[in-house]
Amino acid sequence: MSLVVLGQAGGLVAVLKPPGRVVIPGRGPEPEVPLNAELQAQLGQRIWVVHRLDRDTSGVLLFALDEATHRAASLAFEHGEVKKRYLALVEGDVAAPLRLDVALVPGRKGKVRPAFPGEEGKPATTLVTPTERFGRVSWVDCEPLTGRQHQIRVHLKAAGHPLLVDPQYGKKEPLTESALGGQGEAVLLDRTPLHAARIALLGQVFQAPLPDDLQRVLGVLRG
Q1: Distance CA 14, CA 200 (A)
Q2: How far apart are CA 198 and CA 84, in angstroms?
């Protein structure tokens, strides 16, 4: 199945990243085909990676079609000129907007953690706005004002609202329909429920529709 191209403009191409896929080659003995290689074969031309999304994050992913656009995009990221919007399902009732200013430092085994008091970390800020509230679960809009690794996931956990499923920073167990307020025991959510919904870069705006698994979860919660 071909990757879904969401748009192409200004030397950029946006694709819909499915959950469970890596953007660049991994380090395992039998690495899977990464998205950049698949898209390059699909388009029949060389491409450059503009940014990355975690394996289980879905949503809009950008690549550059030429070196000049890649340089311009890299500078835009470096200077904080990129606007990103993510959607997430989190634990607890997020009753009001949050501004999370939590410096981050490298942790163990590839993780990131909040800096301890007096410890120098990289400044990181995330704006969180509740979109829908379901009591024990909230559907929130997240805007990272900085671009640190795992920023949204770590900030949400630090605020007491971790993602519903997150093997690295929260609960590892998949969630069934009954666990989310439904009737059946079918697994509805087995990955981190984080979706890159929108990105604005170099005068271009690209958006990604919500994937089927998150739509099903929301259907049960609204049920």
Answers
A1: 11
A2: 6
Does domain 5-222 fall under CATH 3.30.2350.10? My reply is yes
> Following DSSP, what letter does each residue of 43-73 receive, concatenated?
HTS--EE-----TT-EEEEEEESSHHHHHHH
What residue type is assigned to position 36 of the chain? N
Active-site residue among 54, 66, 93, 141?
A: 54
The CA-to-CA distance between both ends of the chain, in Å, stands at 32
Report the C-alpha gap between 105 and 155 in whole angstroms.
12
Residue 182's CB is within 10 A of a number of other CB atoms, namely: 17
The residue ranges of every structural domain in the chain are: 5-222
Residue 166 known to be catalytic:
no
Taking residue 17's Cβ as centre, other Cβ atoms within 10 Å add up to: 27
- pTM (two decimals): 0.94
Q: What is the pLDDT along the chain (223 residues), one digit of tens a residue?
A: 789 999 999 999 999 999 999 998 876 555 688 999 999 999 999 999 999 999 999 999 999 999 999 999 999 999 999 999 999 999 999 999 999 999 999 999 889 999 999 999 999 999 999 999 999 999 999 999 999 999 999 999 999 999 999 999 999 999 999 999 888 899 999 999 999 999 999 999 999 999 999 999 999 999 8
Kindly tell me the burial class for residue 216, based on how many C-beta atoms sit within 10 Å of its own C-beta (0-12, 13-18, 19 or more). Answer: middle
